[in-house]
Every structure is written in structure tokens, then in C-alpha cells.
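Pasting as-is:
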Amino acid sequence: MSVNLLHGDCLEQMKQLSDNSVDSIVTDPPYGISFMAKKWDYDVPSVEVWKEAIRVLKPGGHALIACGTRTQHRMVVNIEDAGFEIRDVVSWIYGSGFPKSLNIHKKDERCPDGWGTAIKPACEFFTLCRKPLSEKTIAKNVLKWGTGGINIDGCRVGTDAITINRHDGQSNSLVESTKGKWTGKKEVVQGRFPANLIHDGSQEVLELFPETKSRSNKGASSVANSREVYGKYTGKIDCGASANHDPAGEKGSAARFFYCPKASKKDRDEGLEGFEEKEIESDLGSGDICKKREYRVHPIRKNTHPTVKPTALMQYLCRLITPTGGVVLDPYMGSGSTGKAAVKEGFSFIGCELDDDYYKIAKARTHQLGKTK
């Protein structure tokens, strides 16, 4: 396992990498929304960037590429134009988003009261895409390159015993054969089939789901192997706003989906013990607003990147699409959450970052876990 951090523009840095040399791409690139007037967020990555990414990715290799709701269409078009096959979109929903809406009536009392300019953000998307296979079948592609499939059993949700039917020892199926009989062998596995939805476990999100019959959470208190799944949560792990929420007795169908809260301060600053704490610009997220007065509060953190993804979320995504012992690439490394996650999962990691400060933070966060170049 190795960690290779490249300092500079990702389009140029990826040119140093060989064809078909990485197993997966997990990245949180610029969304193209001019986030807090940051220059690096003026547009979504170009087709040229994704062409270089697909060159270094092995045939059949998957990528999970994050984007916001406003520019998801532009991101996906560029990814597809570069040659990727769009396979799905994984939605991460959360209750801690803050509405960035202008009260029009306050600006001019002649305007109707109660009207604004935006709705509350509560989700982000990860486009799941794949480099075309080089072989005639997925099985042959996996045998040659190790890539082509996704890690279903390694990403099952929860700890309930589920009876499934194996077909040819490779895939799960809930479809009967043409003869009306199951063609596969019944097998008991732990956890539900992973879905294209992830939630943060907040009460606001749980209430969005229709209630179903209560089901057992026996054994669900375990969060072994960093699987931060929905189940009996005791607050032993620092999960920010969700730390006091115990969904063990919930009846909502959110229990079927992977659970991961937003990044906590502990998660953000882990590995940065020698760094100075600074006031950072806030995205008006949970805990950053003074409730008695409407003004922005700048939180004090060592990790000054404004859009840090939780490590547990990135671990799950890396594990979903990366073969055992594989190499994960993040062209837009930021403060290194994907790198930290990849190393925790036992994968090698290659990351690119242009900003000097973020590069130093990413290096510190990953250095504690693996040998960093």
C-alpha cells in the first residue's frame, strides 16, 4: 500500500501516470457554482480532464464523482463526452443544509412577504460511471484487469440476516428462472443490498421516509470495519449533530440505506495536531449560524477546506468500487478525505491538489496512515 500525492493542476499531474494504472476514481471536484467566490469553483471539470482520468483508469474501472444539484447535468455531460458509461447516481441526503435564500420583502417592502430566492439544500449526487470493458464479458474483464464489477457483499447495509439466491456463485438475483424455479443456491448474508441512496441519520431525513413495520436491530450496535451503518447508534463515535440521535427503535425504511453523518470537527482535524487553528469561511451549514441574530459565524478549525466530506462516507464509496489491494485516484484531492478513506480501507492512493494550503493538509491527514510520497 502506498500514498502518492501530486502537487499541481490535475490535468498536468495525471499525465505522469501510465495508461490503465488505477483501479477506481473517487473524487469531489469543483461543482461550478462559484462557492463562496472561490476561483477553483468557477466551473465543473472539463471534458479534457475526464479524458485524462479515463486513460489512466483500467478497463471496466468505476468512478464515483460528486456534484451538487444545480450543475449535476453539466458534470454528467462532460463525464459522458469523455467516454465514460453512466451507470447510476448515488444520492447523499442530509438534514443539516442551510437555506441560502434572500428574503425579498426585506429588500423592498413593496414585494410580497414570505417570498425568497432558493430552497434548502439537502442532497448531493455521486455519479457512478465506468470505463468501457476491454473484454467481451464482465467476467473476462475481471479476470484480466480485476475491474468491472462492484463490491456488493462488502457494502451491504446493516447486520440483519438476509436470505438471497446466488446465481452461478457470482451475482444476486430476485428474479425467477423461465421454468418458475430458482436457478441459484439460497444463502444467508448479513445486511441488505446496497442502494443508490445514502443518508445522514438526522431526524429531519428519517421523517421523510414512510413508516414500515419495525424490524429487529439485533447486533446492529457493531460498527466494525468502519461500516457506519444505520442501526443501534450509541453516540460513541463523534458524529456531530447526529451524536445524540439513536435510531435503533425507528420504524422508518431509512434503515435499508447506508448511514453517514456530515464530517465532524474531530474527523476534519484528525492528523493535523501541529497545525494552527484558524477562522474559516462558513457555508452556513449546521452549527454555523447564530440563532438569535442572522449573521455568519466563522468556525475555528485546523482543516480550513470549506467542503470536507466525512471519512466514513468516502470509505464506503472506495470500498464499493475498488478491488482488493487496488489503487484509488482522486484528481481533486482537497484536504485529503478520499486519501484518508482509501488508506483506512487498505487501498493505495494517488491524489492531485493545486492549492498549497490544502495540499499540506491532505499530506498531514494521510501521512499518519500510510507512507506518503
